[in-house]
Amino acid sequence: MKAVLALVFSSAVALTASAKIVTRTVRYEHAGVKLSGYLAYDDTFTTQGKIPGVVIVHEWWGQNDYVRGRAEQLAKLGYAAFALDMYGAGESTSDPKRAGELAGQFYGKPLMAERAQAGLDQLLATGLVDPNRVAAIGYCFGGSTVQALAYSGAPLAGVVSFHGGLIPVPAEAAAKTKAKILVCNGGADGFVPSKDIDAFITSMNAGKFDYQFISYAGAVHAFTNPDADAMSAKSGLKGIGYNAAADRRSWQHMKDFFAEIFAVAPRP
Predict the structure, then answer these.
(1) 134 has which bridge partners?
(2) Boundaries of domain holding 240
(3) How many domains does the chain have?
């Protein structure tokens, strides 16, 4: 028995030692725009078959270290994560004016969901993921984007919006939307007015969407980003700030949500 236990233990140690987070840049194109995504996964999980996948949509700042770090966090949880590129060439900025220009080209247009779908297609094309267990998450602008992607009828099990603007629900969305929806909203987010929240909840109930709307007391816009305070000071953009408690709680709510929609054990 001791010999068997020793063998099992040594095998587990060897497996852990050989495990690693694999990351790579993925070049792709949509509507003539050259894009640069970031793929991350743990090769330990992929040896066991196809795994759940998560598309990540960046804040209006663009595809930067923050969103790539989130991809790596998801990889450690056993997911294949793809931080897509909405702007082209992996562009990012710290200038609010430029960020507004970049993000502004998508709101209210089919391009928002179409560009996100191009990223989803790249994740599916890796061959790593189970196409029936794919979700999308997004931050700020990215939170709005994953809502638009869900409403388009994309083949997603669920979407999570972290401090994202609440976009109007299209009339035909209820019949097309396959995804369950989790919205993680800052209770003191001045960028998401109460009238938008009321309209969103009314639309969700009217359309009989499977949704959750969670509000974190005292949290302002960008509450998940540890760099939000520094970015506010540097850029002069008011109303954004990090909230450690809301960050921790919303991440846990996301993990519980994934456990449900992917039918997996909750991740530690």
Answers:
(1) 53
(2) 21-262
(3) 1
